[in-house]
Amino acid sequence: MKIAAIQMESISGQIDKNREKGKKFVYEAIKKGAQLIVLPELWSSGYHLTKPVFAKLQQETKDIVEQFRAIAREHSVVLVVPFIDKKGEDFFIALSVIESNGEILKTYHKSFLWDKEQLHFKHGERKYDPIQTSIGKIGTLICYDIEFPELSRILALRGAQLIIVSSVTRLASEKRWDIQLPARALDNTVFVLGANTVGEGSCGKTKLIDPKGAIVHECSRTKEEILLCDLDFSQIDKARLKIPYLKEFDYSLVPGLVETKLY
Fold it and tell me: For residues 96 and 99, what is the distance between their CA atoms, to the nearest angstrom?
């Protein structure tokens, strides 16, 4: 199975330009055979904006999700599309998982907000449930969420085979990005796919990590590009035979967490 992550530079506030660039990358990934394609956090709006501007652009970013539902349906591809969501008067950094028939299987709201994000957005509900898609069972996190190891562990214990992280990770956080994604993959013997932006101080390095914590492929720090990789979920079982972290896990440490047969 081929999967893709789009590493792109967004122009803050330029919805039309970002949308067309994003679509171009997605269509290119489809032509190359990708069955799952992931876009980075706030790709359609840009990241460095004020709360009034985010609010102004919110509906347009959500409308783009509808356009990508049509792309998913037409090309039978699973898409992970971040956007700005709104409930009542509250705004959320969000993403939707779109099935290959165009159905939105899940919308996830970023649950941990970094620094000044808390001035613009609300925390999402802290519930971490993977979703079964036509390409496998995936968990979704957004940027700062990956820095909390408990979230990935819960997703893995609930059966996630691939944890997807849409992100705007800055150069100042590059070291953490390089350490934490492989750590989450190894700790939980799952694949981790991190889709990051470039430009405006972002560190790029979109990457796929295998269940043993090894980098399968990593993009550059500065260039727009498509990460395109083959993914074989059978590697998970092979890794778990040698690294039994989840087999040894004591479910009583997390009240309410139902034991899942992983071995």
Answer: 10
User: Is pLDDT at 259 greater than 80 in this prediction?
Assistant: no
Structure tokens, 219: 């993009």
Q: 0.85 exceeded by the pTM?
A: yes
How many CB atoms neighbour CB 247 within 10 A?
A: 11
Give the sign of the dihedral formed by CA 207, CA 210, CA 211, CA 212: negative
d(CA 116, CA 103): 33
Give me 187's structure tokens: 């700790």
**Domains parsed from the chain with CATH numbers:** 2-241 (3.60.110.10)
CA distances to 57, 171, 180 from 197, rounded to whole Å, are 19, 11, 17
Neighbouring residues of 4: CB distance < 8 A, sequence distance ≥ 6: 29, 32, 34, 36, 37, 38, 226, 227, 228, 229
